[in-house]
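User: Hey, quick favor. My workstation is busy. Could you predict this chain's structure for me?
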Amino acid sequence: MPRLLLVSASLLSIALAASAADWPQWMGPQRDGIWSETGIRKDFKKGKPKERWRVPVGGGYAGPAVANGRVYIADKTLNPGAVAPNDPFAPVKLAATERILCLDSKSGKELWKHEYNVVYAVQYPCGPRCAPLVHDGKVYSLGAMGHLCCLDAEKSVNGKGQLIWSREFPAAYGVSVPMWGFAGHPIIYKDLLICLVGGRSGQNEGSVMAFDKNTGQLRWRAIVCDSPGYNSPVLIESAGTTQLVIWTPKKLHAIDPATGKKFWSVPLEPKHGMSIMSPRKHGDCVFAAGIGNVGVTVKLDPKDPTKVAEVWRGKGGPTAKDGVYPVNMTPFVEAGVIYAADQPGMFRAVDLKTGRRLWESFEPIFGKNVPPGFTAPCGTAFIVKNSANGRFYTFSETGDLAIGKFTPEGYTEAGRIHLLDPTCTALNGRKAVWSHPAFAEGCIFARNDKQAICVPLGE
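Assistant: No problem, here it is.
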């Protein structure tokens, strides 16, 4: 009997391990903000869960990736003598070290790290912007100054990660570093790793580049523009084709991810070149919007992949009475409704096809509807939906995790806990957490500029 119990327990542990969903890239397995694990708590009525681990890390806006029992985090540490400015807009150069850390997901213990020297010359020089991407035994990381690395996801020698190939975008392709650094998360399509790299001013060279994911060989270039912007592309299916949708500072594009061939494009020009949110496909529509109150919803043609029709467009300008215009978060779209944090600092629900605002509230971001003394021009919250229990898990710039429901009628919160203190300097001098968490192994994995944590969220 004891042996039978032991075998049963072992089989159960193997089954649980096999069913534990990974979070191998920014915004989850399908890059859609969906968390599919079962048995996740729907509220915090039983109290705040006990954290599994908390470990020190360096600075960065890059969220964690979790795969095969390992956590991957990109961060930055300052070299001796370098001092970060109090003003994030200050034009300074900082001698720093960027790192890719590999941690054990159960203990937070460092398994290996890869590091390289870099001179930061961007505004908001906190650290890397892009979460690592784990795929087929490799981990890919893009640093703020354009260092692209491909490493063995598991093998290491004396605690050092094993570099397979790398590229330094400015040196290799003569491109300029964007004002706020390289922030577009690379994406995998079959045997390609696709990145927003940028072009050289006045030259007819594509800004989007596809590399062989195994060797780093450049396979194609597409979309001519001087600056890549800050967008993270997304793959969609339409008219019997796979399309890669990308928002550059001038236009919203769709191209063939295998060749870079253009399908369609529409004008969409945000202020300051801040094309940030990842385009969202819902049904037969694609939506993108950003700073300057510019946004558009286009309808895809069901038969012709080269055709789209505009169904709604934000008018732009200093004021807007319709639409939603997120700065540094990607909205969630469900049942024809967009849920997103807007520039004035509140959360809004908006009809996808008309731009009509259904409701707005500060509560999803700040835990109360009217935060005392809040004057910042934007607010940030990252939203993920658990497909098994129907709840939304919102990680806000305050370092809080909230569980609730978003509906066309309003927001209902079922509980909120504080995970991390806000550490990065945001607009108007306030502190914020601007890194998208990972949800895997029944836990939330999150980080600020000083710590990374793992907190179980199982029932």
